Amino acid sequence: GDEVTMKTNLCYDGCDLVELALKYGTPLYVFSKKMIEGRCSEIREQFIKRYEGSSAYYAGKAFLTLAMCQIVEKEGLGLDVVSGGELHIAIKAHFPPERIIFHGNNKTRQEIEMAVDQGVGRIAVDWEGEIDVIDKVAGLKGKRASILLRVTPEVEALTHKYIRTGHRGSKFGIPLERIPYVVKKSLSLQNLNLMGFHFHLGSQIEDYRPYIEAVDVITKVMSDLRDDFGFVTKELDIGGGFGIEGFEKTMSKPISYFVDPVMERIKARCSKFELPMPSIAIEPGRWIVGEAGITLYTVGAIKEIPGSITYVSVDGGMSDNPRPALYDAKYYAEVANKMGRPKDKIVTVVGRCCESGDILIEDLAVPSDLKPGDILAVFNTGAYNYSMASNYNMLPKPAVVFVDKGKDMLVVERETYDDLLAKQKFIFNV
Ligand code: LLP
Question: pLDDT digit string (tens) for 317-335?
Answer without folding.
Answer: 999 999 999 999 999 999 9
